[in-house]
Design brief:
The protein is of the alpha/beta class. It has nine helices and 14 strands. Strands 2-1-5-6-8-7 form a six-stranded parallel β-sheet, sandwiched between helices. The chain has a six-stranded mixed β-sheet with strand order 10-9-11-14-13-12. It has a two-stranded antiparallel ribbon with strand order 3-4. A hairpin with a 2-residue loop joins β3 and β4.
């Protein structure tokens, strides 16, 4: 298949290439696409060098898949143009996530809603993906009533400017407000400030957790509230999740449901200090769940600790898995035949 990676020179773009290689996605023609300033640069895929091409040339190539990680404004302008020529777009930005005409997909949770007619498919926010993958099977078993989520999100989720800020500060450089990704230092600090603040006092990142969770699980009125914090961790997002259910549960059954979920690894042996940590999720595609315990203050409620590499399952891996699902289910009409 002809596969374009749009935004190939960014952090997620690099990770998309790695994941495509690792899963042996059937790429017969690779098309690296980026903005005008990157056109002509060389990127390596599957051991071969490719020159980066423009957005226009990416459209003209009529790829079967275009995996987008280029920002919301770019997606809004270009994803429809790729789709018009028959390309299936899987978009990592927030551009289409809440569009009622577009699917918001975590394959293990709601992949069955996809059809051959879906030409633009939205990839959820990184913090939403890992949490929903853990909560999906529990919602199916016990029916979610309310979610309270506190996130501890790696600075890598903000992209290359944040990585440069962190590395400079770690190296001893003073905080440089003019070139910083954040309004405060990130090294040895925690910022309760992910994305921009909205009129309700929450950040966009926090409200993504609210709206995207409802859409993916198909529960428009689900009670969800969140606090998102940026932390000086290189390699993964962590989340403390408090979940209240309509129906009672046994903790052993909760663990069994999670362990049976593809892509979930249960690490829950506190007697031996076994629990998920972002340091050990880096470069991994799975979502790790532990610290599973009852909320003793509320009936039918429990607490979990959920960890994943935000550049992997939180972005690149989920994107590639959506494409894999479409291929496996025979839902791909090749662009050259459209």
């Amino acid at each position: 298949m002809k596969v374009a990676v749009v935004g190939v020179t960014g952090l997620v773009g690099h990770e998309l290439c790695r994941v495509l290689e690792e899963v042996n996605f059937p790429v017969t023609e690779f098309i690296p696409v980026a903005s005008a300033r990157s056109v002509g640069k060389q990127v390596v895929f599957a051991g071969k060098k490719y020159p980066v091409v423009s957005m226009e040339d990416g459209v003209l190539a009529k790829a079967d898949f275009a995996l987008f990680s280029a920002g919301g404004s770019v997606s809004l302008e270009w994803a429809p143009r790729f789709a018009e020529v028959g390309t299936i777009v899987v978009d990592n930005s927030s551009a289409f996530r809440m569009d009622t005409d577009k699917k918001l997909i975590v394959p293990e949770v709601n992949g069955t809603t996809l059809t051959a007619d879906d030409r633009i498919i939205a990839n959820p926010n990184c913090s939403t993906i890992q949490m929903v993958l853990a909560m999906g099977p529990l919602h199916a078993a016990y029916t979610l009533k309310r979610l309270v989520i506190s996130t501890y999100q790696s600075f890598t989720g903000t992209g290359m400017p944040a990585v440069k800020q962190y590395e400079a500060e770690r190296g001893g450089a003073a905080y440089d407000a003019e070139n910083a990704a954040y309004p405060h230092p990130i090294f040895e600090n925690c910022l309760p400030h992910c994305d921009v603040f909205l009129e309700n006092g929450y950040t966009k990142e926090e409200m993504k957790l609210v709206h995207e969770t409802r859409k993916i699980l198909g529960v428009p009125e689900l009670a969800v509230t969140a606090t998102a914090v940026r932390v000086p961790v290189h390699g993964g997002h962590s989340e403390a999740v408090n979940a209240a259910f309509e129906n009672p549960f046994e903790l052993d059954d909760v663990r069994k449901h999670l362990a049976a979920t593809p892509g979930v690894v249960v690490q829950d042996d506190v007697a031996n200090n076994v629990y998920p940590m972002p340091r050990f999720s880096k470069g991994r595609n799975e979502v790790f769940v532990g610290r599973i315990r009852r909320d003793e203050s509320l009936e039918n409620a429990l607490n979990l600790w959920v960890v994943a590499d935000n550049l992997r399952k939180g972005a690149a891996t989920n994107t590639v898995q959506i494409a894999q699902y479409l291929v496996q289910q025979g839902l791909v009409r090749q662009a050259t035949m459209v």
